[in-house]
Specification:
Layout lengths: L10 E7 L6 H14 L4 H19 L6 E7 L3 E9 L10 H10 L2 E7 L2 E9 L7
Antiparallel strand pairs: 1-2, 2-3, 3-5, 4-5
Length: 132
């Protein structure tokens, strides 16, 4: 099993969405479904769904390419990973408000540019498993 802030391995669901905000509805639905499958309660599910939404919106503002998303449901919680090709000369710029929201809603997250790719990862654990 994988250790660290993003937990153990589990069932994965992959999706690709165009970089337009009107596709965030589909992303939010899949994020919520993955959280429910991981056994999160209603509040935890909503927190995860909103954190994923904020990170995807941030990525969409920095690319002209589709986002590749992976949702992983585990015994301890749920994780989402996102990646896309960066627009030339851009960095993933998360607003102060979005960063505050994601920090409050997620147990751990990262947003970075690696070479020509933008990436994020976000994790939400069951309340009993939270490591704050």
């Amino acid at each position: 099993m994988n250790s660290g802030p993003f937990g153990d391995l589990g069932d994965e669901l992959h999706m690709t969405v165009p970089p337009y905000s009107h596709f965030l509805r589909s992303v939010r639905l899949v994020a919520a479904d993955a959280a429910v499958r991981a056994g999160l309660d209603c509040e935890e599910t909503e927190d995860f769904r909103l954190a994923v939404d904020e990170l995807c919106h941030t990525m969409m503002s920095s690319t002209d390419h589709s986002l590749r998303l992976t949702f992983t449901a585990t015994r301890s919680g749920v994780c989402a990973r996102g990646a896309t090709e960066a627009r030339a000369g851009t960095r993933p710029m998360i607003s102060a408000l979005s960063a505050t929201i994601v920090t409050a809603l997620a147990d751990a997250y990262e947003l970075e540019r690696v070479d020509d790719e933008l990436r994020f990862i976000v994790r939400r654990n069951h309340t009993g498993a939270r490591a704050r």
